[in-house]
Amino acid sequence: MKYYSLGKQSPEVSFKEATLRGIAPDRGLYFPKQIPEFPPVFWKNLGGRDFNEVANELMQAFTGASIPAPQLRQILAKTLSFEFPLRQLTAHISVLELFHGPTMAFKDVGATFMAGCLGYFSEQTDRKTVVLVATSGDTGGAVARGFLNVPGVEVVILYPKDKVSDIQERQLTTLGANIRALRVSGTFDTCQAMVKQAFQDPVLRENQELTSANSINVARWLPQMLYYVRALQQLPGETTEPVFSVPSGNFGNLCAGMLASHMGMPCGQFIAATNTNDTVPRFMKTLDYQPKPAIPTLSNAMDVADPSNFIRIQELFQQDFPNMASELTATSFTDAQTLEALQELFADFGYIADPHGAVGYLGLKQYLKTHPEARGIFLETAHPIKFRETVESCLETRLELPEQIRGLLDREKVFTDISTYEELRDALR
Ligand SMILES: *Cc1c(COP(=O)(O)O)cnc(C)c1O
């Protein structure tokens, strides 16, 4: 499988090169040259098959010759070492829980898969690999955890000061070893812009591989398609194709689901549910792509004004807007609506969601108003404990501390404050 740059000015590369580069020299995102199609029988027989086998087959189509079969198998076994349970709330609403991994956010899958790939690639070179990542909350922790002690790889995480939760900050500042955290005065978009600039800086690439672990990286983005496949596996004998409501920030998760749909996966609509950072919902209405400055919300991992992966969704539809609009609905919700949704889920179903999952639930509920016969799945992308203060005060209840979080609370946070690109550059040299 080859990957081309959406900037169209850089040569095609293998999966390995796309992963090592993160972003193409022309600043474009990499995109698979063909979308591999899997026949209806593959999807029909999904229910009875081992998930790891299915995952292996799907990912092999994207990693190609870059990763030999036994290594891919090993990487996926580690990546998929936890459950993705689908829980039915009503005949029309189910929730796919993606938070049972080591950092309790869905990004564990992409981060662990990418760490496995880079670990394998670094065995083949003497050059040090530096992974640079901007986080709006959950990416940093998942990446830190996924890459901890991977030989030959050093990780530098940028996060916006005062805009991530205490637990999120602990997850990315307390591991030490090959993980460094930089606290940036600014927003997530500031962090992302600094990371993008670093990739254009030839000096930083002289003695080291420099790559990104954001969802712009194909190795983080692509394995997310497996969530949707796992959801389908848990719907045996269903004849109605499910609608997926995806709480979206940088739009990587949603884009991976839509990619799976283009590979033949049977499903209905996709719903992009955002918080008040509504660039895409506005675009879907007006055809005018106008990012505004990011607004902090309760679902902070989605506080993204200019979502990197939306361009990939457009490419998937070859820039055919009506076609895209026939498969994608986008809506945004306020913090007040998010809190109401948390309360409703708790009161009606005894279900404790996190603010991101609540936004996904709102997206699905809104869709069901006009499509009452649909059968929907909303993605619950983080464990509520990661947004403990919000959830506990909103529901007037106490959350139990899961084992993954308990150990973090008495560790010391270690980070360096930075505010300019020059400071980042110094930190990387
Ligand atoms: C990152 C994140 C999202 C948004 O996912 P994207 O792929 O960036 O759209 C949603 N919820 C949580 C909890 C996240 O960490």
From TrEMBL:
Its EC number(s): 4.2.3.1
Name of the protein this chain belongs to: Threonine synthase
Cofactors (names): pyridoxal 5'-phosphate
Alphabetical keyword list: Amino-acid biosynthesis, Lyase, Pyridoxal phosphate, Threonine biosynthesis
The keyword Amino-acid biosynthesis is assigned to this record: yes
Catalytic activities: O-phospho-L-homoserine + H2O = L-threonine + phosphate
InterPro entries in the cross-refs: Ser/Thr_deHydtase_PyrdxlP-BS (IPR000634), Thr_synth_N (IPR029144), Thr_synth_N_sf (IPR037158), Thr_synthase-like (IPR004450), Threonine_Synthase (IPR051166), TrpB-like_PALP (IPR001926), TrpB-like_PALP_sf (IPR036052)
Stored NCBIfam families: thrC (TIGR00260)
Residues annotated as domain Threonine synthase N-terminal: 2-79
GO molecular function, one term: threonine synthase activity
Involved pathway(s): Amino-acid biosynthesis; L-threonine biosynthesis; L-threonine from L-aspartate: step 5/5
Pfam families per UniProt: PALP (PF00291), Thr_synth_N (PF14821)
Protein family (similarity comment): Belongs to the threonine synthase family.
